[in-house]
Automatic annotation (TrEMBL):
Comp. bias regions, Basic and acidic residues: 434-443
Superkingdom in the source lineage: Bacteria
Protein name: SPP1 family phage portal protein
Organism lineage: Bacteria, Bacillati, Bacillota, Clostridia, Eubacteriales
Annotated region (Disordered), positions in chain: 26-48, 407-443
Polar residues bias spans: 421-431
């Protein structure tokens, strides 16, 4: 799609509208919940405010499960060089690229990747969230035009970079040109997009923001109740004290009353900790349930089998697998733009459709039971297909080739030396040695 000013202006207006939808998910990930912002302040009472950020904890946990193991690229046609070029180029960009992409997706429900060349003509990738940019997408979800908003250091103005099929345009916030357009050579709008299936409805924020607020209100109420007990009152009946006498009493720690019938004791608040604790536990349990996470701080029974643990993690596996598919759509665009760059820069021609992208979940597995299954099915099922089930194998194709190479080296090193029967030099030398020995014996 070629740059259209009217569409760009409408896209800018839509961006300003959409920002309101993404402000709260960003706030909750950063720990700025409504509970902390709206907790009432009371005069002469304890006003402690703090949080326990389950939104960030769940998102970071899912990201670590998704990208803790390295993303594996493989060629369907066996083109090893294409895979090497992918890994070499991406590793030189950012080792945390996939982690950053997954985190942005789970916070905002949408994440963009912009592909460009730096001043040294090297291929670069930048992850952008919906608070920084917006894409004009077609019916298939492909970005046809993209607006990226940013500010320069020590400059309060907002600048816009607009990407289309051929150029990168540079504007200010009023779409006045501030620099000449730059050609990008990608032959398409160089922007990939990943979107959760149901948008913001699938985010952790949408699932538990109300529970998160209730949980923090409970914790803050509980803490402030304890704080208020420090202000426990001294109850005195049958006597009176002037303010000066109270100061002396406080300094000396002595109370003297005029009547033997006077009573002096502390007026304490009877706090029922079980009420707060049970309410907190119910809210926390509900947050774990709706996000399909497991509470790792709870001790596991010693007799729990690996199969039982895998069954408990199965709902989370399904959720993460669905999120993988959302990331794949963006990564396919990444490969398409990368191969275009390799063709332009190094005259290497690869087909991005030939590349298979595989995620390996970084979840606990019972590898001992899986190894037993592999040994039982070794002559019935493909070795590569079975080794993919082991948690520490992230690239079954590479591991299989390494195994064959190791076996080949072992056979070569352990095989007996081959005799060359056409070479008679050793035989002649041995015969001469025998003759010399016989001659010495005769003498």
């Amino acid at each position: 799609m070629i740059y259209d000013r009217q569409i760009a202006m409408k896209l800018y207006d839509q961006f300003n509208i959409n920002k309101n939808n993404y402000t709260e998910p960003e706030n909750y990930y950063n720990g700025k919940t409504k509970a902390q912002r709206n907790y009432p302040d009371s005069e002469n009472r304890s006003n402690r405010k703090f949080g326990s950020n389950h939104v960030k904890m769940f998102i970071d946990e899912e990201v670590s499960y998704m990208t803790g193991n390295r993303l594996v690229y493989s060629s369907k046609s066996g083109n090893i060089q294409s895979v090497k070029d992918i890994e070499t180029t991406i590793d030189n960009i950012n080792a945390c690229l996939d982690t950053e992409l997954a985190t942005t997706l789970l916070i905002y429900s949408k994440a963009y990747e912009v592909y460009y060349l730096d001043e040294y003509k090297d291929f670069k990738i930048k992850v952008i969230n919906p608070m920084q940019g917006i894409g004009y997408e077609d019916v298939e979800g492909k970005v046809q035009m993209f607006l990226y908003f940013y500010k320069k250091m020590l400059d309060d103005k907002t600048y816009i970079d607009l990407f289309d099929d051929k150029f990168i345009y540079h504007f200010d916030s009023s779409f006045n040109t501030v620099a000449p357009p730059q050609p990008h050579y990608f032959q398409r709008c160089p922007v990939g997009v990943a979107t959760l299936n149901n948008g913001i409805l699938d985010t952790v924020y949408n699932q538990i923001n109300g529970l998160q607020d209730a949980y923090e209100y409970t914790l803050m109420d509980w803490e402030n109740e304890l704080g208020d007990t420090r202000l426990s009152y001294l109850l005195m009946s049958g006597c009176q004290m002037t303010p000066e006498q109270m100061k002396i009493m406080k300094e000396m720690g002595i109370i003297q009353t005029e009547s033997a019938d006077s009573k002096v004791n502390f007026l304490l608040k009877d706090i029922k900790p079980d009420f707060y604790k049970s309410n907190r536990d119910i809210l926390e349990e509900e947050m774990y349930k709706v996000t399909q996470h497991l509470k790792n701080q709870i001790a596991i029974q010693s007799n729990s089998s690996g199969t039982m643990l895998a069954v408990r993690l199965n709902p989370l596996r399904i959720k993460l697998t669905t999120q993988y598919q959302c990331l794949k759509n963006c990564i396919r665009t990444r490969l398409q733009c990368l191969f275009t760059y390799l063709y332009q820069a190094e005259n290497k021609m690869y087909d991005f459709k030939d590349i298979d992208v595989k995620f390996t979940l970084n979840l606990p597995n019972n590898d001992y039971e899986m190894a037993q299954i592999i040994s039982l099915l070794s002559d019935k099922v493909s070795i590569k297909g079975m080794t993919e089930k082991l948690s520490w194998i992230t690239n079954a194709d590479k591991d299989f080739k390494d195994m064959l190479e190791e076996k080949k080296q072992v056979q070569e090193n352990s095989a007996p030396p081959k005799l060359n029967f056409n070479d008679t030099s050793n035989i002649t030398d041995n015969a001469d040695n025998v003759g010399d020995k016989n001659e010495k014996i005769k003498k």
